[in-house]
């Protein structure tokens, strides 16, 4: 019964709102291609800056940045690492060479996986501070400071008791497996007009700044036009400096909208970015943006891209017209991959494989669908983006993640388990 109840919740969680019936399922070809997203706006200097930055954690494996062919998925499997979790939504590591993995549960707990076992006591429990009335509310995201080993700071994204988004900083206690529950500094608060499309992902970029993904505020069809409105954080990717001398945070000088009130905005035109990640080797940015009626998409920005990218919502759903036309001269960044609702109903953005155990997967971006359990790989081959379906998994994929060694994990929301990609 417990699995059935969570299964019913999972059908709602993260799914695209739809006012029209989904199309009749049709399998797309195994390999689909899309042209590269526009980069003409980048100056030669910025293009040069997109070269791989120095890795900030462990040295990069001695392997090419990206393979040029898709691997044979029949040679790998998803191995259970932990079960008995409670609505697991996020997977992170602290970059502190401890080998631990931190698992975020929607109900407010962060668990520690150490030496193959989930510790009995949670790292943090804020269940008394959050709202979970809507299936897209709760404790939604976690990011560790790049200097966590020295300062013990980490950041969370949660829905407060009113259902509004809070971004807060905490600090570890004297026990490395216990955060100090009284160390909260809340520094961003975003009113949420509806209970869905909260986004929730956070990640530190190669520039050391904290990026925060927010959905358009919910309901369906972006009724308030938040995706294109620069007077709200909703439907945006924010970028802030958490090491600023101006507490509680600073705004980087090269943020694109520093002349407006919402100067934290780095990119716009997002519907519900459910998981974004930076390639740990190159610094490239990948975003999974949940669609509305028909199209799920993966967006991409190469390292060194300037701010101000507009990913199109709600003018576009994927590459397709949705509502109205943008003003003349507006450049919309097309997705590098998309799939229709015959393939699934809610994209879960993934991660780039940077481990050493599966060299034939090196540089491959894995992403999946929450509803269908399909998992795809994405590569840029000879300048053309190509995506290939790799697996038909019986998972409700809530999140992908990595350990510090670059191995890939996923959380299955229906069985409440954590899996790792391994060779058979």
UniProtKB/TrEMBL annotation:
Residues 1-22 form the signal peptide. InterPro entries: 6-blade_b-propeller_TolB-like, Glc/Sorbosone_DH, Quinoprot_gluc/sorb_DH_b-prop. Residues 85-412 form the Glucose/Sorbosone dehydrogenase domain. Residues 22-69 are annotated as: Disordered. The keyword Phosphoprotein does not apply. Keywords: Signal. This is PQQ-dependent sugar dehydrogenase. It comes from Candidatus Desulfolinea nitratireducens. The lineage of its organism: Bacteria, Bacillati, Chloroflexota, Anaerolineae, Anaerolineales.
């Amino acid at each position: 019964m417990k699995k059935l109840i969570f299964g019913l919740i999972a059908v709602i969680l993260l799914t695209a709102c739809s006012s029209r019936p989904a199309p009749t399922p049709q399998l797309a070809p195994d390999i689909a291609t899309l042209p590269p997203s526009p980069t003409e706006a980048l100056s030669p200097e910025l293009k040069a800056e997109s070269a791989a930055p120095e890795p900030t954690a462990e040295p990069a494996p001695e392997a090419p940045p990206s393979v040029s062919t898709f691997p044979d998925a029949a040679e790998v499997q998803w191995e259970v690492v932990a079960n008995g979790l409670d609505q697991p939504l996020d997977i992170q590591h602290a970059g502190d060479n401890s080998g631990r993995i931190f698992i975020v549960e929607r109900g407010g707990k962060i668990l520690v996986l150490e030496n193959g076992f989930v510790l009995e006591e949670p790292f943090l429990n804020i269940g008394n501070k959050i709202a979970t009335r809507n299936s897209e509310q709760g404790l939604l995201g976690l990011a560790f400071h790049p200097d966590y080993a020295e300062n013990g700071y980490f950041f969370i994204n949660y829905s407060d008791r009113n259902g509004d988004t809070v971004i807060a900083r905490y600090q570890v206690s004297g026990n490395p497996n216990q955060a100090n529950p009284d160390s909260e500094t809340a520094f961003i608060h975003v009113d949420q007009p509806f209970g869905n499309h909260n986004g929730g992902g956070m990640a530190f970029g190669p520039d050391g700044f904290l990026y925060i993904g927010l959905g358009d505020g919910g309901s369906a069809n972006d009724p308030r036009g938040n995706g294109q409105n620069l007077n709200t954080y909703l439907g945006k990717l924010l970028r802030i400096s958490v090491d600023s001398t101006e507490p509680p945070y600073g705004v980087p000088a090269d943020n694109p909208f520093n002349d407006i009130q919402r100067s934290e905005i780095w990119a716009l035109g997002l519907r519900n970015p459910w998981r974004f990640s930076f390639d740990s080797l190159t610094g490239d940015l990948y975003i999974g943006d949940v669609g509305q009626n028909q199209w799920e998409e993966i967006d991409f920005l190469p390292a060194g891209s300037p701010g101000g990218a507009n990913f199109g919502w709600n003018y576009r759903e994927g590459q397709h017209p949705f509502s109205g036309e943008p003003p003349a001269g507006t450049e919309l960044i097309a997705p590098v991959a998309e799939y229709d609702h015959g393939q699934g109903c809610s994209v879960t953005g993934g991660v780039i494989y940077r481990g050493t155990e599966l060299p034939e997967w090196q540089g491959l971006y894995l992403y999946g669908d929450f509803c269908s359990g399909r998992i795809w790989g994405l590569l840029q081959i000879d300048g053309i983006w190509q995506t290939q379906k790799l697996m038909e998994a019986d998972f409700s994929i809530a999140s992908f993640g990595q350990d510090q060694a670059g191995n890939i994990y996923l959380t299955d929301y229906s069985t409440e388990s954590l899996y790792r990609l391994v060779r058979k």
